[in-house]
Design goal:
about 575 residues, alpha/beta, 8-stranded parallel beta barrel, 20 helices, globular
Amino acid sequence: MDGRFDFIGLEIHSSRMWQLEQVNRTIDFMADHGFNALIFHQSDLMNTLVLPEKYVTVKTMWEKFSALRYFAVENNQHYLNLVARRAKKRGIGLYLNVKEIFYPDDIAELYPQLIRDNAVACPSDPFWFGYLEACFEELCERVPDLEGVILSAGTHESRTSSTRQNPCTCERCRNLDGAEWYRSLFESIYRPLARRQKKLVVRDFTFTRKGQSVLLRAAEAVPSDVAVSLKNTPHDYYPTFPNNPRIGTTGHTEYVEFDTWGQFFGGGFFPVSIAEDIEKRIRYCRERGVSGVLCRTDWEGMYENSTFNSTNMINLYAFGLLANHPGADLDMAYREWGQAGWIDALTPGSGLPLPVKPADPGAWVRMKDFVKASWQVMRKTVYVRDHWFCEDNMFPDSLDKAFKMMVTVHGRDDWEPGASRRLDPTVDENLEFIMREKREAVREAENLRDILTPEACGFPAETIRRIDETLDLYRWYAQIGLHSAGVVFLTRRACMTGAPGDERKARSAVAGLRYFRENLEERLELGEDMYPHIVYWLLNTGRMDRLADDAERLLGELRGKGLYETTGL
């Protein structure tokens, strides 16, 4: 149980990967904390590193397209080689996490037969398998110190795939065997990697149990030295969800992915510890025979923000400790993190903020209690009965979007049948629980400062001022959750029951949201010279306007029929 995992990875999933000083800092932390795999994750990363010249020559780039892309590709190869060499000297291998099929516009122009009548590139065209093999062959030649590739296939985030929402409608695609398509894709990438002794890791990035089953069935047919990577919870990184049921079942070497940043718990800006959740799930992985674990430290949709310029570094300390010593006392991570100091998320990542040490060496205990309590605030703010209520940590801008996020896109029903019944607002107990949960979040957010007591920790006055600013924004954020939930669930109830009393309550909630939004706008103007742009992402007043408008439209149509037939639970 105490043995370290063979593969301990840290993933950069944003433009930070192209900032050398950010990467150098990351490598230093990794070397000091037992990580052995640095992962660069970018959906179209292959397009930035190869042409490939078998299909798009340098001469063609000069004569037909823009030579700038060729220069960028060559420059990126030099950069990646430098990173790979620096990491290798510290005992760390470099991996690329890519989504395929992802092609540049050059390919679409040179091979127009790939594009079908509905303007979709046909994913089943045999062309792609030769093309991908050439891409990865060229990658291995140009970046020889690369350790391996983590492949996400069949995702709507790639440019074309067998699972895209706007599918190719050709006869071959209509009759496509999904598992066979995956297998051909995996093998076309495996062959050039295997020839150069590079590792292929097939990554499960599917949204449904059925889709997951098809992908993993294909993985069973690939060579045994291919590893499989699974998220710690099904579909994505939700700390409120059950363990991914496929962990320990694939018959391959398995890696399991975690998030230390906050894609589903506050976007890395608000201080949240999920260390206890990481501890529980890492132990589960060890019990299920998992060989490796990796953690994400940022997200592609957000720049200037990562675990490294966030108090959420506690999650990274905890992950590193437990990946190396699954049975370790978690207080070891809390102590090291707390004694290193407070990291100010109000400072953009490019500012390379350094932690500010507390004068009291025992302050880590207060800091631990604070970030643990903060997780309870965040859970009650951005989840509704453990269903994801937000869109990338922004609150919903329509009722339809709210229920699609909770039930369809990020739903639990596939993994916990009937879970969405807890969201039905016509059940009085459900509505009471939902609104009580949101009121508790606001109340508990107001108590967070008293738990931390930054003066007692011995932080400097300027650090205390910035802590207070962050916690004040946190209180506003929790109130957006309260008001948004009130509008969403009371309006939904009114539209389902048609009762005049329910309509009055819904209209009152909308008025409350609009009044709150005006106050928030004034509050944000006070800190405009101080805030990074993520603050305006999280405390998004425009989405509040749109939600109020949508609710008023629905309430205005209340006497119509079948208002909510398309968004059902």
